[in-house]
Amino acid sequence: MSSMRLGIIGMGNMGTDHAKKLTGGAVPEIVLTAVADKDEKRLEAARAYLPDTVAMFDGPEALMNSGLCDAVIVATPHYDHPTLAIQAFERGLHVMVEKPAGVYTKQVREMNEKAQESDVVFGMMFNQRTNPVYRKMHELVHSGELGAIKRVNWIITDWYRSQAYYDSGSWRATWAGEGGGVLINQCPHNIDLLQWICGMPSKVRAFCHNGKWHNIEVEDDVTAYLEFPNGATGVFITTTADLPGTNRFEITLERGKLICENDKLTLHKLSQSEREFCFETKEGFARPSVEVSVVETHGDNSQHMGVLSAFAKAVLHGSPLVAGGEEGIHSLTLSNAMHLSSWLEQTVELPIDEEAYLAELNKRAAASKFKTVEAQLFDTSGSFGS
Fold first, then answer.
1. Are 249 and 259 in contact (CB under 8 A)?
2. Which of 14, 202, 233, 235 is the most buried (most CB within 10 A)?
3. Sign of CA dihedral 207, 208, 212, 213
4. Distance from CA of residue 213 to its chain's centroid?
5. CATH class name, domain 129-298+331-366
6. What is the DSSP string of 169-187?
7. Dihedral, 55, 59, 61, 64 alpha carbons, nearest 10
8. Which CATH code is given to the segment(s) 4-127+302-324?
């Protein structure tokens, strides 16, 4: 097999963006052969730019049963991600799941188990892992040359969304349709990077404000305090309402500090470990010297198409994925913990009580109100860089 035949399930904003880029030849190893959506208007819109060689189906099962695809991208509303992935596994199809992996960890755990039973390639669309700056942060932290992490701070508030965005679909920003707000929609990338680079926290105390800045029922403003197994602490702040927003990721370690901001990585490197210096110096106000430098990074920031290129190479040649599908549960565990902590108004330990989380989510979903709106598609260019 010289190329991989791909089907896209869900032709919303992300599915449309993928389809346009793939038919434009963005990934030579991939041939787009089919798309599916239950909304006839979305299929009609897709026909305007897709070649006649791309088959269209009014449901995911028809696409998966067509024999036209070796693999699928699941780009539907969040609750359906695990269900559709499992259906694809059962048909022997390779699967790429858009973020998030699902809405609650119990369903994602089942998806991971089914993937392990299947002889297929399973990937997660964590496109920010292709960013050379974040890859370099991962390398520096995991190399151990800067010592253990002491503190983590990430303020990520440049996910601005207008009310029109939230009004663009009946499922958006509802507990029953989307399963959450900024934590489940925009921030899976950032939460994935936080745990990928720094490891999983052991405790979380979060404050999630529902509809603080928009007419929505889910959270659009979050502040979370984190504790890590080694005693390190962290703060994670996000919203979809700040203009201008901020994206500043700081990691303080025993031998220095990393600051990621404005697509630049700065290293403040100490001449001696702070932990050693603290107890060796005889001077009350002394400090070790600090060398400040901008860290060089290498490689293309290939984002979604880079993830899909690696996915195709994994299917065709057994090459590594950018992110394995089973890794999606980690960031979801952390966002679930933030929700649960806020709902219960208390600190929660990880791993969380999955049944308690699901019970609390179901309470909110039962009271959720689907909106009656005309579904809209937006131009997504420039919206993935945060």
1. yes
2. 14
3. positive
4. 23
5. alpha beta
6. -TTTT-TTTTS-STTTTTT
7. 30
8. 3.40.50.720
Enter the tokens of residue 316. 């065709």
Q: Are 256 and 269 in contact (CB under 8 A)?
A: yes
The beta-strand segments (E) located in 171-255 are: 203-210, 219-227, 233-239, 247-253
- Contact between 232 and 150 (Cβ < 8 Å): yes
The residue extents of the domains of the chain are 4-127+302-324, 129-298+331-366
Please give the distance of CA 329 from its chain centroid, rounded to a whole number: 10
Name the packing angle between helices 354-366 and 105-117 (round to 10°): 120
Are 329 and 108 in contact by the 8 Å Cβ rule? The answer is yes
Helical axes 80-90 vs 105-117, angle rounded to 10°: 10
Q: Do 18 and 73 contact (CB within 8 A), yes or no?
A: yes
Please give the Cα distance from 102 to 79 (Å, whole number).
6
Give the single-character DSSP code of 284. Answer: T
CA-to-CA distance for 216 and 275, rounded, in angstroms? Answer: 46
CB-based contact 255:271 (threshold 8 Å): no
Q: How many CB atoms lie within 10 A of CB 373?
A: 13
Tokens of 342: 């806020």
Q: Per-10-residue mean pLDDT for the chain, 386 residues long?
A: 95 96 97 97 96 97 98 97 98 98 98 97 98 98 98 98 94 96 97 98 98 98 98 98 98 98 97 98 97 96 98 98 98 98 98 97 93 65 50
